[in-house]
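Lab meeting minutes (informal)
Scribe: AK
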Amino acid sequence: MSYRHAQVVVNQAWSVPEEGRAKFEAAVLKSAGTLTASKLKYNARILRERWHPETIRARHQKSVKDRAVFFEPEPDGMASLTFYASAEKAQAAHERITLMALSLQCAEEDRTLTQLKADVFEDLILDGVTPSGLGKGIRGSVNITVPVFSLMGLNDEPAHMEGYGPIDADTARRIAAGAPSFTRLLVHPETGVVLSVGRDRYKVPKDLKKYLRVRDETCRFPGCNRSAAHSDIDHSLDWQFNGLTAEDNLAHLCPPCHALKSETGWTVKHLEDGVLQWRSPSGRAFMSEPATVIRAVEPEPPPGESAKTSVPQPSPF
């Protein structure tokens, strides 16, 4: 069998209880060497149902609670969106998208059926409205960090999309051209962005929140990837222990990780450039690096002046 064939068998066998696994494996391996991987997957799924000791009704009632939508970054500025739901609903959704795509085919249409299905799905998911009206007026948004020279077209340095990573400069400029607003993030406090309010206030100012969201992008607890948009901004040294409301004492933590940090022996220390050093109750150290490192940069000095006398200026993004 090929590696893909073995993957198919393993993916179906792992969820079969031990008492039915041997019979399942014996049945599926009989024809594994003579089928394509896709056909083997189909057969294995049917055999799994036959040899699984628990009824499909009971398993479906539990599995339907796991329905979800998954976002998965892919190479070259692409990504996958997976809809995991009851088979009849997923099948109906795919059939509807296919029929809508087929209706667009004509002599003047140069897109393939696969491309048409993707475009139909895109239009439905970005602008569609449910029968109850849910979705009307709601638009998803993306946060793009674009180097200023790339935005001006002076170079093609990649931009950074929150929750994804690098995207090409052309796409970033196209998004920027239609963006309703810009947030100018400057990394030096004298330029206007408040990076610290010290002990003057507990609540984090709006511009500092934006700075932290671009810097962190996700929960900063080791191994957690929950979006910063759905996380809390935590004082690493608690406010009641004289912690400051400053960028070097603040980090995003999702509610479960926030509770873990507050209620257990985990500790965190801020290092340079937004890097966090976590230490577990057992003493093991973990490093959490920021999604975006925003540093002040020095401009080129005027002719005749030494670079040592130049004053650091902020770098806009």
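Next up, CB showed the second protein from the same session:
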Amino acid sequence: MTPRRELYTLVGADLLSNLGTRISVVAIPWLVLETTGSPTRMGLVAAAETLPYMLSSALATPWADRFGVRRTSVAVDAASAAAMAVVALAPWLGFGTLLVLVAVAGGLRGIGDRVKHVLFKPAAERAGVPLIRLTSAYDGLARGMTLFGAVLGGLLIDWVGITRAIWIDAATFAACALIIGLLVRPPAPAQPAPRESYLRALRGGFAYLRTDRTLLTMLIVVSASNMFANASVAVWIPLWVDRVLGDPAGFGLLLGVFSAGALLGNLLFTVAGTRLPRRATFALGLALSGAPRLLALALSDDLVVVLVVTFVSGIAIAAVNPLLGAALYERVPESLQTRVLGISGSVAFLGLPVGALLGGWSVAVLGLTPALLVMAVACLVLTVAPLLVARPPADRPAAEPVASTPA
């Protein structure tokens, strides 16, 4: 298999497992609703998956380095397939068992996503594909899978039932394990991870991020961006739609327009990203993707105005994840990639649960329009201002060694 075909195979396997996950994002809450009729339990199931996902992304990476990144990917995808197959039996096993199974599946998926992303860099280098182009194309394809998977999940529930829809998710994990196990053969790393105790290895990943202020700043502002984005989706946009339009279809329309803008932005950035100034593009993408959307919701009741601003914001956000991904690949030494990428994923996702709480609290205290105005300013300050004092992304070579902290 040629290096470029191997890269396409690896990315395709990862996207296939993502597709299955998006199906379950729709199917599992529906399963809980049908079997328990409780919105509270739906929220518990979502939390049971999200928290282990974030923890395993960071905490399981030293074991992945020791076991081998490719072998870890195959093993956790096979285990994920088994876990999801048992989740399909949840109506007969009880709600408590379902919570445990979903937590196990979330934990497995957290480390599985991280190690597959670690495999991307050497595959792209062997194929001669610029990392910024890979991260941009992957981000766009992943967004497309999110849209398609959510729609497909709803259709599958209608066509074949909830249980079989979850079985299809299990099958995508099994297929991903087989594809990577049989077709992906990464070379041995030039700088293998040192043999260290678990705690020392984990501290080495945190120590690297502490010393790389540019990466840490990028992660913090992305986490802040995720916080405001989740508050928008969970609270602010639904309330605006209810107040102005009175039709739930408007919520889906706004989310769809933002996703369409992001897909277009990914296409544009994949073509032009290698020629753009990274620091300025990253800052501009964050500035246009968050605060303008909130200001449009606060200052206008015109759906067309809000849709146009939302579409432009979607285009802007398309540069953020690829630039962060490329910086991680290029700046982090090969021997620390698994640990640092895992910790970085957890840091970037920290804003999601905080955002849901922030959205509800801000409206309860201030009201919708004042909350949107205040949070638009806060969004601009928290996502862009830190970048003005950070060093430019080219200030540290990717191969600079960083010693682990003493055990």
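CB comment: Residues 392-407 have pLDDT under 50 and may be disordered.
No objections, moving on.
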